Amino acid sequence: MYETQYHRATSVEGAARLMGEAQDGKYLAGGMTLIPTMKQRLASPSDLIDLRRIDALKGIKIDGRKVRIGAVTTHSEVATNEELAKICPAITSLAGHIGDPQVRNMGTIGGSIANNDPAADYPSAMLALEATIITNQRSVPASAFFVGLFETALEPEEIITAVEFTAPDKAAYKKFPNPASLYAMAGVFVARSGDQIRVAVTGAGENGVFRLNDAETALATSFTPSALDKLSVNPDGLLSDLHATADYRANLVKVMAKRAVAEIANRPM
Amino acid sequence: MGLEGIGARVLRKEDKRFITGKGRYTDDMVVPGMKHAAFVRSPHAHAKIIAIDTEAAKKMPGVIGVLTGAELKADGIGNLICGWMIHSKDGSPMKMGAWSPLATDAVRYVGDAVVLVVADTKGQARDAAEAVDITYDELPVVVNAVAALEQGAPQLHPEAPGNLIFDWDLGDEKATNEAFANASHVTRLDIVNNRLVPNAMEPRATLGVYDAGEDHYTCWTTSQNPHVARLVMSAFYNVAPENKLRVIAPDVGGGFGSKIFIYPEEVICLWASKKTGVPVKWAADRSESFLADAHGRDHATHAELAFDKDNKILGLKVQTVANLGAYMSLFSSSVPTYLYATLLSGQYDIPAIHANVKAVYTNTAPVDAYRGAGRPEASFVLERIIETAARELKISPAELRRKNFIRSFPHQTPVIMTYDAGDFDATLDAATKVADYDGFEDRREEAAKRGKLRGIGLSCYIEACGIAPSAAVGSLGAGVGLWESAEVRVNAVGTIEILTGSHSHGQGHETTFAQLAAERFGVPIDSVSIVHGDTDKVQMGMGTYGSRSGAVGMSAIVKALDKVEAKAKKIAAHLLEADEADIEIKNGDVKVAGTDKSLPWFQVALAAYTAHNLPAGMEPGLKEGAFYDPSNFTFPGGCHICEVEIDPETGTTEIVQFVAADDFGKIINPMIVEGQVHGGLAQGIGQALLEGTHYDDSGQLLTASFMDYTMPRAQDLPSFKIMTTETVCPSNPLGIKGCGEAGAIGSPPAVINAITDAIHNNNLAMPASPQTVWAAIQAGK
Amino acid sequence: MARVELVVNGRAVKGEAEDRTLLVHFLRENLGLTGTHVGCDTSQCGACVVHVDGMAVKSCTMLAAQASGSTVTTIEGLGANGELHPLQIAFRENHALQCGFCTPGMIMSSADMIRRHPNGLDEATVRAELEGNICRCTGYHNIVKAVLDASDKSKAAVQAI
Predict the structure, then answer these.
(1) pTM metric for this prediction
(2) pLDDT for B103-131, tens place per residue?
(3) Closest CA of chain A from C127, distance in Å
(4) Among A176, A242, A244, whose Cβ lies nearest the Cβ of B702?
(5) Are residues C106 and C128 part of one domain?
(6) Distance from C-alpha of B712 to C-alpha of C143, rounded to nearest angstrom
């Protein structure tokens, strides 16, 4: 790791000010991606501005079916929130399967979304839940937030403060992990609210997370796994690497989508 | 057996320090004035070095020295060598290219060490390493061994035209051809044994300390054989004469073969310590380990197995191309030859075998011994082809094996080895019974109803351990003898120190070796200490690899114990005024048999050291040493059965049952033997299902971290069902065969046989990752 | 340079380190607590797991400066009053370690796992929960046994109270 300067922010405003003063600063939340990247000398921020101890960014608030998750809420906090599990078990289950237990104890929802790793789990949930990303400057719908590989709508000094969404009637997330890294090679989040069905895919797209419109259309006719039997996922535009060719990923996307639908169908609530 | 004697399930003495964080590994060592090293390694797989500019690096903060290969050479440090001479079939010696510890003229793989930087901190050393400016002229690259043999392939070493290191034959080609001419069925198979990265959890590290006052060097290193390291560094690399070089291998966090070899880093850090005047520590990052540790396996093989009309095997032909990487590592030449082709007879009575092995240079990391070393490759060839043959012949795989088992011992194979003992029916019977092999088809049907493909695979392996009779390996080209030494020191109060040339890096020697003394004298194992891993404490030893610590290392201890016992009995007979033949040592007492006359053990020891009343002419003291040179290899064997369920939609394989029945001869501590089997199975299953090493065409390692190289995790593995049968090994005093590598040798073919059975497609590469299995299912449709 | 203040194994410690210093290096090099190991550089092997404010984290993926102000427990501080922790005992009794290098991280992760599952564990859960820890020696067979053993005993101890 190159030498850097560490700052601990105590307020969102203070953090933004520190970033303004830094030559080439980076916000640090759980650090589960940024620190490994710095260790490999692939990132060399002059300053690190630690957001993890800012109280305003912490915690989960639930009001009826409206959910607000503070940006520095860890994956394990989301995974173990019983109130949230009652109205949206898909998101607690997703959080409980990110990385490993130690990563879940440090990694945050804000960090995951801001990084927009094409194999991260949360972006698919944000897209399928039509979540709103709240920053210190504005509110951005998820559909406009995730721009491309590791790219988001965030401006340099902008800080995610929370995400908000309305719990869907039903939802499920199924992922097939990379056997080595355990990141998603194909992760499919299916959400249904009334007639509206949204299917979002992570881990597979060359440009990161995307909606699978063909699956949504098919499921609108019949919300059953077999409705996806004829679904053909186009491998063009899918990632291809050592562990999964685009063809294999296309297959995994379909299989995971069917399994997510099956889980919803089989769930008592 | 006593509570702590031979055969007892004694908990490990060494555990206390490991479970409390008090283990002492090389990177934990701190000496006054110690500084930190970082290597500048080649980013190219093949290039000429045009220029090395170290000026900017030397001016970086904290930098003490920036050293190059030219300076190393000027100081007379020698090239690294391979210590096992192989002759090609035309009689010519193997063609070894020069390997300078720091590259001077050319680099031949990504990770090749070029420059050393020493600085106050590790971070500063890395910062400065980036400031070293090396101009390269890139050359064409070849990473695949078969491609490296083709006309026009990029050439690595002028010493080895065509990249061919040797073209070696074993067995009778003419007799084998004749056997095939009479065959009623021939099974043919092309298989690849995938390259593996050993990945002991402790990355390699070394601390070199030069003492100018004494003109003496100390080397702490992550080694499985510190004495061999000292010998090689003294005799071949000119680091220092043996009496001026102490090598210490403290707690070592796993080896699996990868810490046998003498790498550039130890040599360079010792030399750099003298050059810079400070102690120099280097500790590899995992990423560095991936690039610069010796890898394992990497064979491409064509095999043919001939049968008569009664399904008896007539002959076996094997042609293998072995990738040895960019340089010949210390024992690299022995792995695809005498540790491989000599085991191709397996558990079967095969009248004629012919093997040809071509060893090849490529622009990849050096390849050398990794858990099993040659024997997993042999068992993979044989156990895959016999299972394939059974399918072709439409006969039960168990039955075909049974029909061809060797049943009388000693048995001379056509490939050098003389098997001394074994009972292959016993392990096959034990495993098939526990696995309910005969009831498998019902389980297959039941799984099919759940949409799963279920398969079962057998593997009946044999291996050669207890490496090895010195004269025999000497005649085959080994540069060293493979005996072991021991010294038993009984202290004046009766406590015991056992000094051994074996080295424990997880095997539990501090417990099992102490059990030998407990068995012999009835003393508690807490009063027995095992001393190892330091060339200043133990005079000489050959180290731990090839499952040799039991069969060879413990046999040396037994010989030394014999001598101590004999002398103790003489002293006791004298003190008790009895006949020496009537003295027995039991439960810590030295007795005259059939009487109530006895002395406690410590009094005999004390008498030896007070020397007030010893038999006439006897020297004081109670300390004996012994060297043990085995008379033969040992031959552990067994049967592994793997049962899998495959999700056809994703290609995911779940091992639903894994059974291993092994014959290790006599067992000293069953708990430790079971642990060795578990670990070996995990590595073998890892090879079969998870671990793949991939270089791209430009020679970049694509699987260069745990992000891409799949290490077996708890969730990838089942709990194992293991058991042992016993035929006593007649070739050593304890009757033991060794157990360290069996799991990794027997399991890969069992796994692949099971998967290919499940998917009905025999063409399946390792690792059988979900993608690979899914693709094989699609291809078989 | 960063000023780092921690309570480590019950003792308040202060030190200075480069801002880029990882917690694991601060523990090993500044405090001499070499029981915490570094087995990889991609946050996967878990040899470096310690507890920070009661939770298992990978100390190779946290800056010492980030941890400043926290309470840290390492393998050296796991037992209390000179007694071994039940997991340390279970690891020995079940032969759940060989070379010992991954062991401190394994034990620290397992302690966290047992804390989070007060009602007990089963084999599948233990295997899933160990995904952040890699062992090359044991094949996990005896580690799983040891964790289940310690979990059963701690459950029994809780029920006895």
Answers:
(1) 0.97
(2) 999 999 999 999 999 999 999 999 999 99
(3) 12
(4) A242
(5) yes
(6) 14
